[in-house]
């Protein structure tokens, strides 16, 4: 049966932020044939493409996305010896649960991270010092040839709501979207090394020409009771520390790595840093919390969470513009207070 391609579909319900205008075209795909069918459609119409997982790391523009959004829903899950084969559309929560049930360990850290396996691999999602890089053995992708790329983007600081100086600038650290004009693809495997994993990044996020189909993970034999206890503790700690009662996209900013001399200077000024800095990395949430007026700061319907300052929460039908202005304000304040340029962990789509 041909896939259903819908027009003018609101993306807000497909993101954890509950923000975002319409996709010009939208479809849900369950396997490689359906992905190819969707790509053929974009090729014919010369459309931009965005591959959507669980939508838990995105800020989608109020004007939406002028192309085809392909939502991946292949939720294959198979255990072969100690290899785990999973579809990129499988929810990470289900993966964590199934692996604990199967007495396999080393993925408990992912408990409570929303989204799909594909999104987690593209982002190299992680927590408690561990990340997808540690468990991924191989990734099977559809490589799209002859896609053009839009530039990567980041917010340039501004201050006032409605200000005409709100704009997005090219940046090497932020995601963009691939554009139409495709004519060929090929299916290929990436080894762990070829995935080029780094902090919340991978080749799949950097080069928007791969659609992750499946992944092979490698885990150790574990103790089911112990794993389940760890998972329950992690979930409880997330409920305590994170504002899960409101829509958000998790941590908005990456935790910056600061060079030696700059860090020593900051440690003198803020002795608390001696306790909390690990591997020259400062918590973005901690920095935001130090600046008077940022914790709980509200612009429109978006607010800096009082529970966890690296979260911006949608408390009252926030617009993407509200979030952008808040992000700009935070970046500006952090830069003048700490001399550090924060970079977004979330990805901008449709700007
Ligand atoms: C409450 C909350 C807590 C969070 N905690 C954490 C945390 O502890 N650690 C952490 O790392 N993140 C965290 N996040 C952020 C987010 O959940 C993760 O980054 C997650 O892995 C994103 O997966 P997704 O499926 O939602 O991806 P999406 O947001 O849908 O997409 C993210 C990127 O992946 C790409 N992508 C998705 N699927 C595919 C595919 N099949 N092929 C190619 N590219 C694909 C998209 O194009 C996009 O570039 C949190 C978010 C929330 C809301």
Task: Describe what you observe in this structure.
The structure is a single chain. With 351 residues, the chain is an alpha+beta fold. Among the domains are: 75-147 and 182-241, Uridine Diphospho-n-acetylenolpyruvylglucosamine Reductase, domain 3; 246-349, UDP-N-acetylenolpyruvoylglucosamine reductase, C-terminal domain (Uridine Diphospho-n-acetylenolpyruvylglucosamine Reductase, domain 1, Alpha-Beta Complex), CATH 3.90.78.10. The chain has nine helices and 20 strands. The chain has helices spanning 32-45, 92-101, 117-123, 203-206, 224-241, 260-269, 273-276, 284-290, 320-338; strands at residues 6-10, 22-29, 48-52, 58-60, 65-72, 77-80, 83-87, 104-105, 126-127, 130-131, 136-145, 153-156, 167-170, 184-191, 210-218, 220-221, 298-299, 302-304, 312-314, 347-349. The protein has a five-stranded antiparallel β-sheet with strand order 6-7-15-11-14, covered by helices on one side. A four-stranded mixed β-sheet has the order 1-2-5-3, covered by helices on one side. The longest helix has 19 residues, at 320-338. The protein starts with 5 loop residues before the first strand and ends with a strand. Residues 148-152 and 157-181 have low confidence and may be disordered. Bound molecules: flavin-adenine dinucleotide. Flavin-adenine dinucleotide binds next to strand 3, helix 3, strand 9, helix 4 and strand 15.
- CATH class annotation of the domain at 75-147 and 182-241: Alpha Beta
Radius of gyration: 20 Å
Query: What fraction, in percent, of the residue positions are helical?
Result: 25-40%
The largest β sheet comes out as: 5 strands, antiparallel
Structural class, by secondary structure, is alpha+beta
């Amino acid at each position: 049966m041909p896939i259903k391609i819908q027009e003018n579909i609101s993306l807000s319900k497909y993101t954890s932020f509950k923000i975002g205008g319409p996709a010009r075209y939208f479809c849900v795909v369950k396997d490689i044939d359906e992905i190819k069918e969707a790509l053929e459609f974009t090729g014919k119409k010369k459309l931009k493409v965005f591959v959507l997982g669980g939508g838990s790391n995105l800020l989608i523009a109020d004007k939406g996305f002028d192309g085809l959004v392909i939502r991946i829903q292949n939720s294959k899950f198979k255990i072969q010896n100690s290899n785990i084969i999973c579809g990129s559309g499988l929810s990470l929560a289900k993966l964590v649960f199934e692996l604990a049930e199967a007495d396999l360990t080393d993925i408990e850290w992912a408990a409570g991270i929303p989204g799909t396996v594909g999104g987690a691999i593209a982002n190299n999602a992680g927590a408690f010092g561990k990340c997808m890089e540690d468990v991924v053995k191989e990734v099977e992708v559809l490589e799209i040839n002859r896609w053009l790329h839009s530039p990567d983007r980041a917010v340039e600081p501004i201050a006032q709501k409605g200000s005409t100086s709100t704009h997005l600038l090219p940046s090497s650290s932020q995601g963009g979207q691939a554009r139409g004009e495709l004519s060929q693809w090929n299916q290929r495997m990436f080894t762990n090394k070829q995935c080029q994993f780094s902090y919340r990044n991978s080749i799949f996020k950097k080069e928007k020409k791969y659609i992750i189909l499946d992944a092979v993970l490698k885990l150790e034999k574990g103790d089911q009771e112990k794993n389940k206890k760890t998972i329950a503790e992690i979930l409880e700690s997330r409920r305590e520390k994170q504002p899960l009662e409101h829509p958000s996209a998790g941590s908005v900013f990456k935790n910056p790595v600061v060079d030696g001399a700059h860090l020593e200077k900051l440690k003198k000024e803020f002795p608390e840093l001696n306790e909390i800095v690990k591997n020259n990395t400062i918590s973005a949430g901690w920095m935001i919390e130090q600046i008077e007026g940022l914790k709980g700061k509200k612009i429109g319907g978006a607010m800096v969470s009082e529970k966890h300052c690296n979260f911006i929460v949608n408390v009252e039908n926030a617009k993407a513009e509200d979030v952008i202005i808040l992000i700009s304000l935070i970046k500006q304040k952090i830069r003048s207070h700490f001399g550090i340029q924060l970079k977004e962990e979330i990805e901008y789509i449709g700007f």
